[in-house]
């Protein structure tokens, strides 16, 4: 089950889409303005955002820019605008897919599943389980436990933790994380990495001031080690 956020101001479109996506097994929240969508994304950390462009307070393209400054959440733009230059601009700005209205819920559901697969929901079958201290990371099942207690992570949080756990004791730079985890080869906002590390620390029961597993090396990057090592 994916946790989706639908940012759409038209109730006649929003309500049936929410129902249809929930019927397909997703957990769906909805927002009718750009700022409400931004708040939901930061507070609830959905697995994917479906974004309309014609919002009452800000253009959806501006919201996409704001989201990309603080989050790597996958975004599908769903709008009536079908201008090719606009589509290319938004994809270059960080949208993961673009769906032109009118579309069916089945079409949107298929796009959601495809984007989540591309975002790292599948790993090679032979990849080993990683163990660092009390952390156990299973790439095949995409499951994490800490001291035998399950830890619920978003797809991007899992990919970030897995990348660090595959290099225990090694300082990994933010540029490497942006390249390997976010697939942004030419740099990007360090804030994106910082925000996801903050969320990950919270779920691991630690903080930057009192780290157990995730240790920041100022000006360089972050290192994952078992407590006491």
From TrEMBL:
Keywords: DNA-binding, Phosphoprotein, Transcription, Transcription regulation. CDD domains: trans_reg_C. It comes from the Bacteria. Residues 127-226 bind DNA. It holds the Pfam family Response_reg. The keyword Metal-binding does not apply. Residues 3-116 form the Response regulatory domain. The keyword Cell division does not apply. The modification 4-aspartylphosphate is found at residue 52. PROSITE patterns: OMPR_PHOB, RESPONSE_REGULATORY. Residues 127-226 form the OmpR/PhoB-type domain. This is Response regulator transcription factor. It comes from Micromonospora humida.
């Amino acid at each position: 089950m994916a946790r989706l956020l639908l940012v759409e101001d038209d109730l006649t479109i929003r309500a049936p889409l929410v129902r249809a996506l929930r019927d397909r097994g997703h957990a769906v929240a909805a927002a009718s303005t750009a700022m409400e969508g931004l708040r939901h994304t930061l507070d609830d950390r959905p697995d994917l955002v479906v974004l309309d462009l014609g919002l009452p307070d800000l253009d959806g393209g501006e919201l996409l820019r704001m989201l990309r400054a603080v989050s790597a959440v996958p975004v599908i733009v769903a709008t009536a605008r079908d201008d090719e230059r606009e589509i290319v601009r938004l994809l270059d700005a960080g949208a993961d897919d673009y769906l032109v209205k009118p579309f069916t819920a089945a079409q949107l559901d298929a796009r959601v599943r495809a984007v989540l697969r591309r975002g790292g929901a599948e790993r090679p079958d032979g990849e080993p389980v990683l163990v660092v201290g009390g952390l156990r990371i299973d790439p095949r099942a995409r499951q994490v436990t800490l001291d035998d207690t399950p830890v619920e992570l978003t797809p991007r949080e899992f990919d970030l933790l897995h990348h660090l756990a595959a290099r225990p004791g090694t300082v990994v730079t933010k540029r490497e994380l942006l390249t390997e985890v976010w697939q942004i080869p030419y740099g990007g906002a360090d804030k994106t990495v910082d925000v996801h590390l903050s969320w990950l620390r919270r779920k691991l029961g630690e903080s930057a001031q009192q780290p157990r597993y995730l240790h920041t090396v100022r000006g360089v990057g972050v290192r994952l080690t078992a407590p006491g090592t």
